[in-house]
Design goal:
The complex is a heterodimer. Chain A is mainly α. Chain A has eleven helices and no strands. Chain A is 62% helix and 0% strand. In chain B, strands 1, 6, 7, 9, 10 and 11 form a six-stranded mixed sheet that branches. The chains are: A mainly alpha, B alpha+beta.
């Protein structure tokens, strides 16, 4: 009755030992601290194993397996595109184009972690093309739908009800733009992927990862000094 | 004095990043149909495809009423450019006229996503003429995508456009 299988194709019992062995290398890069609960880490392993299996199936010709990967990684791509000052329509096209470009390269990408990095890099490249083209078109004075800027954002107060969120936003706005972009993108992925995604964003090694890095340190310091922001 | 930037990430850092993620979902969510548009676009039979990027999307014509307006979209691929114009027809559908450059007789497929959420996608194929022209009349509104195939399925790759909402 339905064209698309409603079952998620890559879910299922994950052989635990296999998933642990597979990610030993990645985990050794993580800080040896107690703040990551074992269950959160297991979730991450499960997710990664699941995405790896989806990729494997997609490479084997079962393209529907990519649906789950799209659902998981689209928010990341969306934020990368929007952080490159694209309009909503431009960003949506760039995200689509990036996935279409992936099809031809599917066989080259083995690990889900490499997939996220590849997609981030490709999205930035596509966004750059769009901005470049927009600049050329604007100089010709053409009425291009895609280049109409979004309307002025509504006042923050109307959009954000939570005072703690408003405080965060105000502190974010004081950060350099590259820091805002980095943190926005990194917040979309899970901790073991921070450094790889940061590097795909063109940020120097060590900008975030096992350590906090300058951008997050700066934001954290100003938030902790603000009585309007608290941990809970 | 230790540099706070070189400290390992802790719960506070995680809380800040979690809050950032939630805040961006609130302030700048992706279009609700983004996943669907992507999934439709990549559900292709052959994945060895060349992508023709959307490079121009504009409304032409002077009609002040929407029905009189023509939308012209240009997709640019490495091997071929696809230019389509779309006009709303009186019966509430869309007529699509297109041109391939360089001109060639090729199979042009129009994939349409079903209108119901889980309806199967459909497809229509026409062959472009010597001048690279092709047309689809009476196309339903909704999500569509063009795929330009070589006439004989030899080694040439197909050219695909992103999906777009008619």
């Amino acid at each position: 009755m339905t064209a698309r299988p409603t079952l998620m194709p890559c879910r299922g019992t994950v052989p635990r030992q296999k998933s642990n062995r597979q990610h030993t290398a990645g985990r050794s890069l993580m800080p040896v601290s107690t703040d990551t609960t074992p269950s959160a880490e297991a979730d991450h392993d499960d997710r990664r194993t699941r995405l790896a299996r989806c990729l494997e199936r997609a490479r084997g010709g079962e393209l529907a397996a990519l649906d789950e990967v799209v659902r998981e990684l689209n928010p990341l791509l969306w934020n990368v595109a929007r952080a490159q000052s694209l309009t909503v329509e431009e960003a949506a096209d760039v995200v689509q184009t990036t996935w279409l470009e992936l099809l031809r390269r599917l066989h080259e990408i083995r690990a889900p972690q490499a997939l996220a990095a590849w997609l981030v890099t490709a999205t930035r490249r596509e966004a750059w093309r769009v901005r470049n083209r927009r600049r050329q078109n604007t100089s010709e004075g053409t009425d291009v739908l895609g280049s109409v800027p979004d309307p002025d954002p509504e006042p923050l107060e109307r959009l954000v009800a939570d005072e703690r969120d408003r405080v965060l936003w105000r502190h974010l706005e004081r950060l350099p733009e590259r820091c805002r972009t980095l943190l926005r993108i990194v917040a979309q992925v899970e901790r073991p992927d921070y450094s790889m995604v940061a590097e795909a964003m063109g940020m120097p090694h060590g900008s975030i990862g096992p350590t906090r890095g300058r951008c997050l340190a700066k934001l954290r310091e100003s938030l902790l000094a603000d009585p309007g922001w608290s941990m809970s | 004095m230790t540099d706070p930037a070189s400290q390992p990430l802790d719960e506070t850092d995680q809380a800040i990043l979690d809050q950032m993620r939630a805040l961006h979902v609130l302030l700048d969510p992706p279009p609700p149909d983004l996943d669907e548009r992507v999934r439709f676009a990549i559900a292709l039979e052959n994945i060895d495809v060349e992508v023709a990027r959307l490079v121009e999307d504009m409304l032409v014509g002077s009609g002040s009423r929407g029905a009189e307006r023509t939308r012209m979209i240009t997709f640019d691929g490495e091997s071929r450019t696809i230019i389509v114009t779309m006009v709303d027809t009186a019966d509430g559908r869309v007529r699509i006229d297109g041109r391939l450059a360089p001109a060639a007789q090729l199979r042009v497929e129009l994939r349409s996503a079903g209108t119901a959420p889980d309806a199967p996608s459909t497809s229509k194929t026409v062959v472009s003429d010597d001048a690279g022209r092709f047309a689809f009349d009476a196309v339903d509104h909704g999500l569509v995508q063009l795929v330009v195939h070589p006439i004989d399925d030899g080694d040439a790759t197909s050219v695909v456009t992103p999906s777009l909402v008619l």
